[in-house]
Prior knowledge:
Blueprint: E1 2-3, E2 7-9, H1 15-20, H2 30-38, E3 47-51, E4 66-70, H3 75-78, E5 87-90
Parallel strand pairs: 3-4, 4-5
Antiparallel strand pairs: 1-2
Amino acid sequence: xxxxxxxxxxxxxxxxxxxxxxxxxxxxxxxxxxxxxxxxxxxxxxxxxxxxxxxxxxxxxxxxxxxxxxxxxxxxxxxxxxxxxxxxxxxxx
Length: 93
């Protein structure tokens, strides 16, 4: 899913070519994407989010594992904002 303040696009993102089609627009509210992912049928077994970390996080732990890939210039600085119940990884350039 491509998400900012709302889900903008849902599609198959596979491999490097798929990632090249994702374009950030800023103002991302990650919880919107997580809530939308939890509504998918079938429900995902896990959710992986790529973000700079400057986002409001969900108040409660989702019913599936959540992996946060922190990317971009402020990734390391945002690591402390990730909820303790999520797994986070800082992806360095």
